[in-house]
Amino acid sequence: MAKIMLVDDSKLVRKKLTDILTKAGHTIVHECERGDDALIGYRTYKPDIVTMDINMPGMNGIDAMVEIRKNYPDAKVIIVSANNQEKMILDGIIKGASCFIVKPFSDDHVVRTVNRLAVDIMKKEQTKNLPAPKDLNFNENISGLILIIDDSKLVLKITSDILHKDGHNIITAQTGKDGLELAKTGNPDLIILDIVMPDMDGYDVLKELKKDEFTKNIPVIMYSSKTKKEDIFLAMKLGVTDYIAKNCEEHIISGKSRSSIADARKKRSMMAKNDVNNIVIDRQDVITYITFRFTLKSENAINERKKIFTGAFLKTLAETVVIFDYRLINEMDAGEIAQLKYLFSLFPEREMLIVCGKHYGAFAADFDMDGKNKFFISMGDAELYVESRNKLAKN
Asked: pLDDT per residue over 138-177, tens digit each?
């Protein structure tokens, strides 16, 4: 695991970082209260990673990092910043910071950011034992680091204020280029992305995000005034998690942001288990999520479905809301559609909530979209539907 030096004038922050990182298996080798002590500390303790506050007595964190990297060009430094210091963060990245953490930070975000830098240090078997982030459903108080990329200062302000109220940390960028830099170095839990921007449009930013190993799995919500079907389908095809029209109601942004972060955490948990199942079932309160992955038509997938979808299992679903998620199916061809129709036949009486993602067009071509079943492009749409229906039932 990594040897880490903490540089921060707040004893409370250093204590919190120490608790988080030691619990994750890392070692704190030294602590500094001042930026001008950091170079001596680095020379003495040779840490693998340094966490560096910006505003400190004496030398500030950016200048301290520059001094360290003059003598140790390979030094890995994580800038630790308050919410309103986006320009300083970008300055730190330009001057050599490996990535950044925004205060106040969550345990999960700190561990993921440090682990990403320490991946060459940690052994594989140790990595598998790292604490997994807690799976949360959309009703819980989910918060994370959200990067908003939009050329409008007004949109950035309004959207940031809405999401701050939900307990999220916010970082913003007014250009696609700056947004990509912040995404690669900040390890955000979610990106909210405009389409029409002067330097790079949102589609180009999205393509670049999906090319990069470190950013390809970050959920992206496209947030745009372009609301034609072809715009939405193109965004879904390129891999966005959700699509929101600008000037929508606040609860849409809040709900879909929570849902996207929770969904990404569930996927990370799935990947951490290294399973190869085609069907993953996750029950949370009154909702059962049934996720189909890779394919529906292979022999293995059909055998797995037969084992799971027994009469006894179907009875257990009677008292729950069930969301069927098909976004991880590779291709929705005729063979997959045939298997879908069989799955639908297992639930002749109940309303099915179906998340289609990039396959929405294929579903629309083969199924009655106005019938008893409900079809959604994103998980956020499905969860907001359940939430609103529950509210109506209580009134």
From this structure: 334 578 899 999 999 999 999 999 999 998 999 999 999 9
How far from 228 is each of 124, 234, 245, CA to CA, in Å? 46, 10, 10
Q: Residue 132 carries which DSSP code?
A: P
The region, left, alpha or beta by phi > 0 then psi within -120 to 50, assigned to residue 125 is alpha
Sheet holding 242-245, edge to edge: 169-173, 145-149, 190-193, 220-224, 242-245
Which architecture, in CATH terms, is 275-394? 2-Layer Sandwich (3.30)
Topology (CATH level 3) of domain 3-128: Rossmann fold (3.40.50)
Give CA–CA dist 342/314, Å, rounded.
14
Nearest 5°: the CA angle 259, 314, 263 is 15
Please return the burial class of 247, using the count of CB atoms within 10 Å of its CB with bins 0-12, 13-18 and 19+: exposed
3-128 with 145-269: one CATH topology? yes
Task: Check whether the bond before 198 is cis (ω within 30° of 0).
Answer: no
**Exposure string over 35-50, b if 16+ CB within 10 A, otherwise e:** bebbbebbeeeebbbb
Angle at 117 between CA 115 and CA 207, to 5 degrees: 100
pTM over 0.85: no
What are φ and ψ of residue 296, in 5° steps?
A: -105, -20
Residues 6+ apart with CB under 8 A from 358: 236, 237, 239, 327
Element (H, E) at 344: helix 334-345
Residue 23, strand partner residues: none
